[in-house]
Design a protein that fits this description.
Shape: globular
Strand order of the largest sheet: 3-2-1-4-5-6-7
Strand content: 5-15%
Order of helices and strands: EHEHEHEHEHEHEHHEHHEHHEHEHEHEHH
Bound molecules: uridine-diphosphate-N-acetylglucosamine
Largest sheet: 7 strands, parallel
């Protein structure tokens, strides 16, 4: 059987890596890797292929950035001939980015089975483009692989039948556990002169946070207070960087001596940076999961999370964007009184193997 694996944006690459490796262990499965090119900068794409030993994509659609409609349409138009040429048994998509929904839709319309890894997560907030991508992708998928129980419940409530739903664990955590020992060797703490002192890590890239100057400014009110306590390391996503440049916010950021804006970090450096942090502040989805396993306090700068297990058993707290709430949660997190995280069930480094075994048997 032939499976086309699709990856497009930064958080897809660490999810595809263990799947491609697991498929390689099954003689029956031939897998092909398609990169849509949604992310294309060296630091947003190639670095991850190199560090995670993914190997070059078989096909790169090279679509690049544009509006949601244009980008989704460009991916669909470029992906359709690839599916027609390769005639796969199934197309596998991961996560919730525009590449995910675009390629799932192309496959479903061509009568090719769709496999969604990380299915069923819901923030119940349709102002997030990812929520729309998740709902649509799940609705047309034939295999729904879930990371946590809430996802299974969401899918059942939406009418998915039990034969399609598999609780298998978390492929992103497969990658984290596999590469953590190598990440220990990263020199990033030395290069940032951080070794031995407490510091915070900040990531922001949600349009609702960074494209809205008022919200971004509120977040900076909190960061201003935190950076008086400890250095705040801020690897800035290209979207965020563009939002900072040319805004009055730029002068504010430059005025904070202990807020250190750096380039997006590579995978191994970022894992090392998070693993030693006193606290991580983020609006990312994957980072809520990685900090749970790394047992590092995580403050999610959003109103909701599609990953509730990270709050139930992990160290994650959804704090929103009001400065007073962020500061109070920060003080609690660094006080040591915070939660003692446990690892969610099946986040054991073997999710991709389970997925490959299920597909080898049932596809
Ligand atoms: C995308 C995903 C988001 C994911 C995030 C991870 C969607 C709808 N959003 O958001 O779910 O959490 O990736 O990073 O799919 N840019 C560059 N270089 C790049 C890529 C992007 O400069 O390699 C800039 C471009 O100006 C682009 C902007 O960043 O317009 C946003 O990129 P885009 O892929 O549209 O969305 P993200 O914010 O990265």
């Amino acid at each position: 059987m032939k499976i086309i694996n699709v990856a497009g944006a930064r958080p897809n690459f660490m999810k595809i890596a263990p799947l491609a490796a697991a498929f390689a262990n099954f003689a029956r499965i031939e897998s092909i890797l398609v990169h849509t090119g949604q992310h294309y900068d060296e630091r947003m794409s190639q670095t991850f292929f190199r560090q995670l030993a993914i190997g070059q994509p078989d096909v790169n659609l090279g679509v690049g950035s544009s509006s949601h409609a244009s980008q989704t349409a460009a991916i669909m138009k470029a992906f359709e001939p690839v599916v027609l040429r390769h005639k796969p048994t199934a197309v596998l998509v991961v996560g919730d980015v525009n590449s995910t929904v675009a390629c799932a839709l192309v496959a479903a319309k061509l009568g090719v089975k769709v496999i969604h890894v990380e299915a069923g997560l819901r923030s119940f907030d349709k102002s997030m483009p990812e929520e729309i991508n998740r709902i649509l992708t799940d609705a047309i998928s034939d295999f729904l692989f879930c990371t946590e129980k809430s996802a299974v419940e969401n899918l059942r409530r939406e009418g998915a039948t039990d034969e399609k739903i598999f609780l298998v664990g978390n492929v992103m955590i497969d990658t984290l556990l596999a590469w953590k020992p190598k990440a220990e060797g990263s020199r990033i703490l030395d290069s940032l002169n951080l070794d031995g002192q407490p510091y915070a890590v900040l990531t922001l890239h949600r349009p609702g946070n960074v494209d809205d100057a008022e919200v971004f400014s509120r977040l900076l009110d909190a960061i201003e207070v935190i950076q008086r306590d400890m250095p705040v390391i801020f690897p800035a996503h290209p979207r965020t960087r563009k939002d900072i440049v040319g805004l009055p916010l730029r002068r504010r950021i430059e005025g904070m001596a202990n807020l250190r804006v750096i380039e997006p970090a590579g995978y191994l450096d970022f894992i090392k940076l998070m693993s030693r942090a006193a606290v991580v502040l983020t609006d990312s989805g994957g980072i809520q999961e990685e900090t749970t396993v790394l047992k590092v306090p995580c403050l999610t700068l959003r109103k909701n999370t599609e990953r509730p297990v990270t709050c139930e058993v992990g160290s994650n707290v959804v704090v929103g964007t009001r400065p007073e709430n962020i500061i109070a949660a920060y003080r609690e997190a660094v006080s040591g009184r915070g939660r003692k995280p446990k690892r969610p069930p099946l986040w054991d480094g073997h999710a991709a193997e389970r997925i490959a075994a299920i597909l080898a048997e049932r596809l």
